[in-house]
Amino acid sequence: MRLLITGGGGAGTQLLWHELHDRYDVHFADADADAFPPDIPVDRCWTIPLAGDPGFATEVKALMDELGTDLLIPGVDEELPVCERLRMFDGVEVLMPEYRYLTVMLDKMGSMKWLRDAGIPVPQTNIVKPQHGRGSRGVQVIQEHLDGPEYTVTMCADRNRHLHAIVPVLVLKKRGVTIRGRTVDDPVVIDACKRIHDAIPTCGTYNIQGIKAGGRFLPFEINPRFSTTTGLAIAAGVDPIAIWYSDSAPANLATFRVHLTLSRTWHNHLS
User: Fold this and answer.
1) Burial readout 216-237 (b: 16 or more C-beta within 10 A, e: otherwise)
2) Ramachandran sector of residue 136 (left: φ over 0; alpha: ψ -120 to 50; beta: rest)
3) Among 269, 270, 236, which Cα is nearest to 253's?
4) N or C: which end of the chain has fewer CB within 10 A?
């Protein structure tokens, strides 16, 4: 099976390559030709336009046709609505949630309201607007501060919305993305994330970020795509591609390796 994963210059690319290239024919695409990790062969790295470019969909489809790609896995938020058009109008197989789920979860305020309306406890979220101005300039989303450990959770469902795996990662250090994290079998986090999926089911692999405080897990963001820690879930024994193509609901959630730690460090490359 041949995969095309976009956002190939991102923090999680090297780990995805390491975990997937022995199982699948993996290719990566990015708008920055210099961003790919150097340990990925150059014949697996492809340059595409930015998501906002009018030619993005056409060029991605042409690349997929040239490569004979079976599955597209978008890794950039801005690409998701365009990839939905590829799925809807061009018949492209895309590993991601449905369109409504995408659009709501990409709206940070709207996603919290959707979860709250579904009966899921979330942090208090407010919009702060400037006294003067127009449009959305100066608008900020402010969330309630919570004291507790942060988790980033990989959720893997098949094309029929059946949930197969929940892999919580305890965030040990974060700088924009998770720098250090460890897989944990935390029943509070797992049960809360299962309730989120049961309340608002979707297909594909997505990511829930939240805080464990006061004996409960509160989500503060849901990313409807592969996250930079998806590779850690794969290394722990969960295969989101195989899950995507699964035909039936599992009797139990997949087991995974616990206490597996991801540590990201800087590398300097000369060429």
Assistant:
1) ebbbbebbbbbbbbbbbbbbbe
2) alpha
3) 236
4) C
pTM of the model: 0.94
Give 34-45 as a DSSP string: T-S-TTS-GGGE
Query: For the segment 233-259, what is each residue's pLDDT rounded down to a tens digit?
Result: 999 999 999 999 998 999 999 999 999
- Return the structure tokens found at 155: 């959720």
Which residue's entry shows tokens 């004996």?
A: 215
196 CB neighbour count, 10 Å cutoff: 23
Statement to judge: residues 130 and 240 lie in one domain: yes
Note whether 127 and 251 are same-domain residues: yes
- Edge-first strand order for the sheet with 71-73 is 45-47, 25-30, 2-6, 71-73
Q: Last residue of a domain, which of 45, 66, 94?
A: 94
